[in-house]
Write a structure and sequence with these properties.
Blueprint: E1 2-9, H1 19-27, E2 28-36, H2 54-71, E3 78-81, H3 85-96, E4 100-103, H4 109-121, E5 126-128, H5 152-159, H6 201-212, H7 220-223, H8 237-242, H9 247-261, H10 265-287, H11 308-316, H12 322-334, H13 339-352, H14 357-367, H15 373-384, H16 398-405, H17 410-414
Parallel strand pairs: 1-2, 1-4, 2-3, 4-5
Helix pairs in contact: 3-4, 9-10, 10-15, 14-15
Function: May have a photoreceptor function.
Pfam families: DNA_photolyase, FAD_binding_7
Protein name: Cryptochrome DASH
């Protein structure tokens, strides 16, 4: 039994189906519940984008507020710190004599490195980080992580029939916090900002119930490629990305729907796409820092470069491609974009605009309300031909895609995709040839 433990919340902002939290509650007499917002999230980084955009930050703040409310019946509090988690946790360890640290294992390379830094700095403490962000634990996988299949199809065939552990309930008891632990104010967001989604475990669970109590899962596969329409996809991704609901909870609700209504291709396809999420999470664990390298997990980098004007036009939706412009404007205004839209703008970024894919991935990191490090960077590698795609470097025909998914131009008109169509590159006077 530990005298004082610390649970570090990250992309797991819920109380239910939290193996690490359940373990901490069973093993500690007192417990500090911590969430850290890093100042560096809100400043432009290496690729001119921020790691945290305002749409996602609003969702996170909603989730933190709801989590704090959920803790009140336990007579507990969520401790908020606006600083590096390594420094915040180090200070709490020194000040309160913490003797055990818990977290849900995270897929991100930098999050894993922070965990390792804490282990190196405090080797005498107990560190526990069970898998709770994935459907399966690493021990359940039928292969060593170093032998992760090179393609999703190979992965799916090996894990699709694995038994799934039941999601666990929230702890009945959470040990009290020591007296005197203080929170710090976190940054806010603009008052005019509106959102399609409300963060938090309760909101996520309500959305799960609404979706699976409807007829929507029965024809999901038929509409999932639509460019817009709230009910044309499951919209679970924001709550999954923040960890307000777990993948196992989604599958549990899916199985309940299938028990009531029967299984068909569409309901299966929901599980199929959760397996894609699963694959990219283990892909991130397997490849680590290679998730962010220009050459990805391949031996050579794509023949692309960085053209500031093209990058800006893509971000602002002023390229020569109206469908791409509409997608990028929707993303910027709402923080959300359909799966089909994401594929199209990424393909355009790499092929038509010939830009370094990492700048596009970083822009998505800033803009997406449902940003997930493994899924985002894994998918961008896939589209750029430096990841898990066995075909490599696949390109979408934008004209054909527009005819198929927006034949009457209604999506382009809705998001004003053709209002400011500019030439791909401008010619400066300094580039004019000298004649005579």
């Amino acid at each position: 039994m530990h005298r004082l433990g610390l649970f570090w919340f990250q992309q797991d902002l819920r109380l239910s189906d939290q193996p690490a939290l359940t373990q901490a509650c069973a093993e500690c007499e007192q417990l500090i519940l911590l969430y850290c917002a890093e100042p560096g999230w809100f400043s432009p980084g290496r690729y001119a984008s921020k790691r945290m955009g305002m749409q996602r930050w609003r969702f996170v703040l909603d989730s933190l507020q709801e989590l704090s409310h959920q803790l009140q019946p336990y007579k507990q509090q969520l401790v908020l710190r606006f600083q590096s988690p390594v420094e915040a946790i180090s200070q709490l360890i020194s000040q309160y004599k913490v003797d055990a640290i818990y977290q849900s294992r995270q897929p991100g390379y930098y999050e894993a490195r922070q965990w390792q830094q804490l282990q190196q700095r405090f080797p005498y403490l107990s560190f526990q980080n069970p898998d709770s962000n994935t459907l399966f634990t690493e021990q359940q996988l039928p292969f060593a992580l170093t032998e992760l299949p090179a393609s999703f199809s190979q992965f799916r065939k090996q894990v699709e029939q694995l038994p799934l552990a039941a999601a666990i309930a929230a702890p009945q008891h959470i040990p009290p916090a020591p007296t005197g632990v203080q929170s710090e104010p976190l940054p806010g967001y603009p008052s005019w900002l509106s959102s399609l989604f409300s963060g938090g475990e309760y909101s996520g669970q309500q959305h799960l119930k609404r979706y699976f109590n409807s007829t929507l899962p029965g024809f999901y596969k038929e509409v999932r490629n639509a460019l817009d329409g709230f009910d044309n996809s499951t919209k679970f991704s924001p709550w999954l990305a923040a960890g307000c609901v777990s993948a196992r909870q989604v599958v549990t609700a899916l199985h309940g729907y299938e028990a009531r209504h029967g299984r068909n291709d569409s309901s299966y396809w929901i599980y199929f796409e959760l397996l894609w999420r699963e694959y990219f999470h283990w892909y991130s664990h397997r490849h680590g820092n290679a998730l962010f390298l220009r050459q990805g997990i391949k031996q050579s980098a794509p023949l692309t470069s960085f053209y500031p004007q093209r990058f800006r036009a893509w971000c602002e939706g002023t390229t020569p491609y109206p469908l791409i412009n509409a997608c990028m404007r929707q993303l910027k205004q709402t923080g959300y974009l359909s799966n089909r839209g994401r594929q199209l703008v990424a393909s355009c970024f790499v092929h038509e605009l010939q830009l370094d894919w990492r700048y596009g991935a970083a822009w998505f990191e800033q803009q997406l309300i449902d940003y997930d490090v493994a899924i985002n960077w894994g998918n961008w590698q896939y589209l750029a031909g430096v990841g898990a795609d066995p075909r490599g470097h696949r390109q979408f025909n934008l004209e054909k895609q527009q005819q198929q998914y927006d034949p009457d131009g209604s999506y382009i008109r809705q998001w004003q995709g053709d209002s400011r169509v500019l030439a791909l590159d401008s010619v400066d006077a300094a580039d004019w040839p000298m004649l005579g």
